[in-house]
Each structure stands twice: as C-alpha cells, then as structure tokens.
Amino acid sequence: MLECGMLERDSRALRTRSTILCKQLVVDELLIQYLQADSILTESMAESIMAAQTSQKRSWRLLLLLPKRGPRAFSSFCSALQETEQQHLYELLTQSPEKDSKDAPAETFVDSSLPLPTQEVIAAKRARTHESMEFSLDADSPINTPVLPCAPDFYLSHCQQSYRMNSSPRGFALVISNVTFDPCAAPDLDPRKGGEVDDEVLRKVFTELDYLVTVHRDLTAQGMRTCIENFCRRPDHRTVDSCVVCLLSHGVEGGIYGTDGQLLQLDWVFESFDNAHCPLLQNKPKMFFIQACRGEEMDCGVEQIDGPVRTCSPSCEQRDAGREGQGDANSRQRGDMGRPRIKLPQRSDMICGFASLKGQRICTAAMRNTKRGSWFIQELNTTLRLHARDTHLADIMVQVNSHIKEREGFAPGTAHHRCKEMSEFTSSLCKDLYLFPKYQPQY
Predict the structure, then answer these.
(1) DSSP string, 275-328
(2) C-beta neighbour count of 122 within 10 angstroms
C-alpha cells in the first residue's frame, strides 16, 4: 500500500522515530546535496529546508517532505544517512520490527547519574556505562563530515591576495584543554564535562586541514605557560606557513584558569607569538581560538514572537565561568647587505576567536553541552569542514557567530532560565586568510 508515494512500512518507520530523528538528525548541506542528486528534493525544497533557523526545524521540514517524494525517498534517505556518517540513525530506521520490539526495554534505560533531561529519549541497543554514554553517537555527536577540498581554480584566483598557505603540513597546532580541576587548589572550578569532546573535535578537524596537532590536557597555569613557551620556540616554525593555538578552560575576562585555580593572562599568550618574541612566525597567520567564559553573566536573550524552539537537552548546558550553576632594541639591526630591516608592528597577522562577548559593562559566559561539547567549538568544527575550501577565515567566524546566535539553551540549575550566546573575534590580519584545504600547488 502506498501513502503519498511511500510504502506504508517506510512511512511508519519515519513516523514512529520522528522524535528521535528531530533531535539527533544533522541536516547539513552534504545530506541535502545527496538527496538532490538522487532527485528526491528539488532546489526550492532544499532552500526551504536550509532556511530554517534551527537544526530541529530543518529536520522537521525534511521529515514532512520525505513521505511525499515517492517510493525511493526512504532508501535514498537511508543511503544519505550512511554517507554523512549518521550510521546510528540508519540502523534505527532499518532494524526489523521484531528487533525493534526486543530492544524496546533498553530504550528506556537512563543512567540517573548523567546530566540528561527527563524528556530526552535515547535509542540504546544495550545498557551503557557513564563513559560510553557520554561519547555515544546517540547523543548528537559532533559533525565529522570530511573537510571539503579547495578547488584548483579557487586557489589560483585567490592566492595572490592571500597569505601563503602551501606548506605541508600547513603548520603546527597546539590544543590545551583543561577538563578536571584540583578540588583542593581550585574548589570553585567544577569539571568541564564535554571538554574532552571539544579537544578531540579540534584534533580531528585541524589534522584534516593538514596541521600537526598536539593536545595537552589538564595543565596548571605554569604548565600552560611552559607548554606555550616550548611551542613558540619550535625551530620548525621556519618551514611552515601558519600556526593554530586553541585554549579551552574556565575563564574570566583576560585570562583562563589552570587546573590549580591560577590564571594565565591571555595578553601574555598573544605577546609570546608577537613579532619580537616569535620571529619564525613573522608575516605568517597565527590563529587563536579561546573556549572560555569572560565573566559569569549569561545573555538571557530577548523573547521574540516567532523565535527558535528551545533546546532539546536543556539540563546538559553548562557555563565555562569559574563555577557551573624585547623587540624595540632589535629594530635597529641591519641585514647582511647593510640595509635597514623592515620594521614590523609589535603584533600583526593574528586572528582570535572568542566563545563569548566582552561587553562594555559585563562579560559573558560561554555555553557547553556535557555530551556534545561547547557551542562555539561545535559550530567552528562544522563551518571549517563545510566552508574552509572557499571562505575567508574572518567570514567563517561570522558564520560561526550567526549559527551560535540561533541556539537557545537553559541556565544550569533551572528549567526555566533561558540563555543565548554570542561569540566574537579580533583580527590584525594584513592579507586574506584562506586555509586552502587539501590543495597542493604543482611546481
């Protein structure tokens, strides 16, 4: 029997699992392209879906359209799920009714020690431990679509106006992620659940962007300082075209916390990479990404009549505030031919993305999901994967902010206090900065 062109059993599978699909389905450009290529969606349908303000609305629009798109729509959708590495949803839709009923008791299993909302249903095939649940694909894992490659034509048309980005590797990336804090030295700093997801996401995406990534976890303030000093002094910075530094911890305006509760000043970090202290990176782009609060105030947003729906996992959202709930002396040096060297600004060729805003009177908290990681890192990962091939890094940061702006969560410790987040970035770039992923010029 057909229902709007789709087999009844396929339509029923979509209906009975629509709640889980709306919460967990990642409807991105790649999935939509697969469905368009298979003639399941028209261009106007694709535009309508992607125009939705939230992930849930995009999923809901797609699920409303699929039953009307013919008998091939279900199999095409399942193939698209596999192609976009959403295997858990593919298995959920294609398991037999007998297996579905046999596994039904397991679907109601919820470990009460986890920060899961009572209304969230997890499609689990077996009881899972605390550790495996937090890393489960069933928990809306970060997007891991392969980084899309830069086209040769795009590189040739933009490379003259851009920073050189030809080396392989492109550069070195340092990720410092503080997740667990010393309960004696820093009793007010709670564990950053979900922080381990962030550093793994960053390791993967920058590795795919051809950076050699080093991850350090749970360092004291002095440990972070030593780690950064050693990174700045690497002699092989001479042979690469850029560098990346990611710092993830609790923080306040102007500083981030070590696991001992001591602050590392961000101004010192930037100074370490300036043209006086890190000469091997002169005239090369230096990218910084700071996932930390800049205060404890939360932006509670402004109610709007037709705003985005609330997040499906409010009690997972936390803040990254303290609590949950010599170059001038060298400027006269001369080159080998006796000509004066060109004098550079003390700091240049830097771009820094912050997870939260610095306001005139207050600084804001950065939101983090205990299962999926921080909002800022989630969106940075997604946007780099999909758009680094043809988008200036400053424009990528604008897109990241736009996507974060659409999110809505709940303040820790209450089911009713809604909050928003805005990221921001600063830049002293002197040229266009394109990462040109997976492109290697032929000489």
Answers:
(1) TTT-GGGTTS-EEEEEES-SSSB-B-----TT-PPPPS-GGGEEE-SSS----S
(2) 20
| 328 close to 388: Cβ distance less than 8 angstroms | no
**For position 425, what pLDDT does the model report?**
84
Question: Is 179:358 a contact under the CB 8 Å cutoff?
Answer: no
Q: And the tokens for 240?
A: 């690469």
The residues near 199 (Cβ < 8 Å, ≥ 6 apart) are 175, 177, 215, 217, 246, 248
**CA 159 and chain centroid, separation:** 26
More confident residue, 313 or 344: 344
Task: Single out the residue of 355, 346, 238, 234 nearest to residue 288, CA to CA.
Answer: 355
Instruction: Answer for the pair 106, 124: CB distance below 8 angstroms, yes or no.
Output: yes
Rounded mean pLDDT of the chain? 76
pTM check: above 0.70 = no
**Six-digit token pair at 297?**
């105030």
- Cα→Cα distances 395→173, 347, 423, 426, Å: 21, 21, 13, 12
Is 427's pLDDT higher than 60? yes
Task: State the Cα–Cα distance between residues 436 and 359, nearest whole angstrom.
Answer: 34
By annotation, the residues acting in catalysis are 250, 293
Neighbouring CB atoms inside 10 A of 222's CB total 12
Name the 3-class secondary structure at 408. coil
Instruction: Select from 146, 139, 36, 41 the least CA-distant residue to 85.
Output: 146
